[in-house]
TrEMBL record:
Pfam families: OB_Dis3
Swiss-Prot/TrEMBL GO biological process terms: miRNA catabolic process; mRNA catabolic process
Organism in which the protein naturally occurs: Furnarius figulus
SUPFAM superfamilies, per database record: Nucleic acid-binding proteins (SSF50249)
The UniProt record lists the keyword Nuclease: yes
Residue ranges occupied by any CSD2 domain in the UniProt entry: 107-182
InterPro entries: Dis3_CSD2 (IPR041505), NA-bd_OB-fold (IPR012340), RNR_Ribonuclease (IPR050180)
Protein name: DI3L2 exonuclease
């Protein structure tokens, strides 16, 4: 395989010129070649070992490998802060197993964002005629909020918050994105609107313009 060497140099190296940098790279390549050869021999020796307990071969036992050959692993022990809004846009459909007890109580919510898990939602949150004609809602976007996700379950549980409308249309898609990211897009209060100029059309006065830098 090709080998790429990244050289580290400071201002002193730069002052000494290109020849010094070239020598440094050559030395590093030679050192790497020697190290790789020695490591290959070492792996060849320790990769397969006989033990006194049995006559079989121990191949690639991780206990005998150097640390640089091991992949470190970790486990999440605590969630400090939940950054996701727990809201997602998606579609609802009936569960596949019609004979299960869960079929009578829940529907399946499939988020558009595949990073979000699929969610069981109560049938009480769905439209009244969803059970009789589920195909009529196959292209309707809904907002679902995740309320729980048990460790031993592949699916979360949640509640339908709102029906947005037909998928593919600008307004439902935009509203879904804003709700997913927790953006408040409600109307401004009367107090906020009173801060705006009341005499329209409003223009910046020449006196104010003189104090500003025009970035238009």
């Amino acid at each position: 395989p090709d080998v790429i060497i990244e050289a580290q140099f400071d201002d002193n190296d730069a002052e000494r010129g290109q020849d010094h940098l070239q020598d440094t790279l050559s030395d590093d390549i030679k050192k790497l070649s020697l190290d790789t050869g020695e490591m290959g021999k070492a792996v060849g020796v320790i990769g397969v070992q006989r033990t006194k307990q049995d006559d079989g071969l121990k191949v690639n036992d991780p206990r005998f490998l150097p640390d640089e050959f091991l992949q470190r692993t970790a486990k999440v022990v605590y969630i400090l802060e939940k950054k996701h809004s727990r809201a997602a846009t998606g579609f609802i459909k009936l569960l596949a197993d019609r004979n299960s007890e869960l079929f009578k109580r829940c529907a399946m919510f499939s988020p558009v964002d595949h990073r979000v898990p699929r969610v069981y939602v109560p049938l009480a949150d769905c439209p009244p005629d969803f059970m009789t004609r589920p195909e009529g809602y196959s292209q309707n976007l809904f907002i679902c909020r995740i309320v729980d996700w048990k460790e031993d379950s592949n699916f979360a549980t949640g509640q339908l918050s709102k029906s947005l409308g037909q998928a593919g249309e600008i307004e439902p898609e935009t509203e879904g994105i804003l709700m997913e990211y927790g953006v408040d897009f409600s109307d401004f209060s009367p107090e906020a609107l009173e801060c705006l100029p009341q005499n329209l059309p409003w223009v910046i006065s020449p006196k104010e313009l003189a104090k500003r830098r025009d970035l238009r």
